[in-house]
Design a protein that fits this description.
The protein has 339 residues and is an alpha/beta fold. It has two domains: 188 residues, Medium-chain alcohol dehydrogenases, catalytic domain (Quinone Oxidoreductase, Chain A, domain 1, Alpha-Beta Complex); 141 residues, 3-Layer(aba) Sandwich (Rossmann fold). Helix content is 31%, strand content 27%. The protein is built from twelve helices and 16 strands. The strands form three sheets. Strands 3, 5, 6, 7, 8, 15 and 16 form a seven-stranded mixed beta sheet that branches. Helix 5 links the parallel strand 9 and strand 10. Helix 3 packs across helix 5 and helix 3 packs across helix 11. The termini are close together.
Length: 339
């Protein structure tokens, strides 16, 4: 089967940073599905794993996590899917990735593709949607069903125009929250407003004075999707006493937890690969949330975050997509379709 991988970790403008290879078609074992991949999307984690480092692979390393496709085979322990089902998912960091014609994935982290989305639209969502959903509803413990109670509460989403932010804004609004999203450019400000953000501020400026202009002295929740180190003190200033802060971006320098101490603030990480990496007892929750997300999409409550589609899936186009994501200025998601 066709696949795109790497042997060396090189700058993306190097033609060997991602190369085309031929691999044996994998088999579905245990609770795995064998999926014929129709579309894939590129995330910052793809760029991070591929980034230059002093290391070389003996066999091609296949990157990629987001995918949509058609189930070709099911393992003997599968109960959730059958051949012919259209699915979408984000795979595991510990297994070969989705830059391949066929891919094996544990069915417990797979959802049925939304009927109203094509494969490209569906492929744009899994990693970012799982991250947003887990961050809001598992880590920050917001109850999506308590919309009346949540109307009294507010959330600051730092990095609102990116892939995760684009989903998080929509989910937070569904939960009834007042949403303040950061966006530093006119085009990104317009995008987050289209997604439902009530207010926008600039994350390159002090956070507290900006939210005060909208009548807020604090927010109940902060969801940090951009540069935890840069925003740490600012998040400590804007969060309400006994509030909750969640980040998805690892820190580069030690974080001073005393910033949160006097307010008794809860700080929690969100990493959507945790369940699949450690085979947690609640691993199937990713199947469940993707299934629920499909229902929300088909009910017209969640819109696509797809902004650009590139075809076909090959090394040249993947390098182009990586370069787009690497700039850090992506609005929404970029997807590649069709091998």
């Amino acid at each position: 089967m066709k696949a795109i991988g790497l042997y060396k970790y090189l700058p993306i403008d190097h033609q060997e940073s991602l190369v085309e290879v031929n691999l044996d078609k994998p088999e579905a074992k245990n609770s795995d599905l064998l999926v014929k991949v129709q579309a894939i999307s590129i995330n910052p984690v793809d760029v991070k794993v591929r980034s230059p480092k002093d290391k070389q692979e003996d066999s091609p390393k296949i990157l990629g996590w987001d995918a949509s496709g058609i189930v070709e085979e099911v393992g003997p322990d599968c109960t959730l899917f059958k051949p012919g089902d259209e699915v979408y998912y984000s795979g595991s960091l510990t297994r070969p990735g989705t830059y391949s014609e066929y891919h094996v994935v544990d069915e417990r982290i797979v959802g049925k593709k939304p009927k109203s989305f094509n494969f490209a639209e569906a492929a744009a969502l899994p990693l970012t949607a799982i991250t947003a959903w887990e961050g809001l509803f598992d880590r920050l413990e917001i109850d999506i069903n308590q919309t009346k109670e949540n109307e009294k509460k507010s959330i600051l989403i730092i990095g609102g125009a990116g892939g995760v932010g684009s989903v998080a804004i929509q989910l937070a609004k569904l939960a009834g929250l007042k949403v303040i999203a950061t966006a530093s450019r006119e085009e990104s400000k317009k995008w987050v407003e289209e997604l439902g953000a009530d207010y926008t501020i600039n994350h390159h400026q002090s956070l507290l004075p900006q939210i005060q202009k909208f009548g807020f002295n604090h927010v109940d929740y902060v969801f940090c999707l951009n540069n935890t180190d840069q925003h740490w003190d600012g998040m400590g200033e804007v969060i309400v006493p006994q509030g909750k802060v969640c980040s998805i971006v690892e820190n580069q320098e030690p974080l001073d937890l005393n910033v949160l101490k006097n307010k008794s603030v809860t700080f929690v990480w969100e990493f959507m690969f945790t369940r699949s990496m450690y085979h947690t007892v609640d691993m199937i929750k990713q199947h469940e949330l993707l299934t629920k997300l499909s229902e929300l999409i088909d009910d017209g409550k969640i819109q696509t975050t797809l902004k650009e589609t590139i075809s076909p899936i090959n090394a040249i186009n993947l390098r182009k997509a990586h370069e787009m994501v690497e700039t850090g200025k992506m609005i929404g998601k970029v997807v590649l379709e069709q091998f």
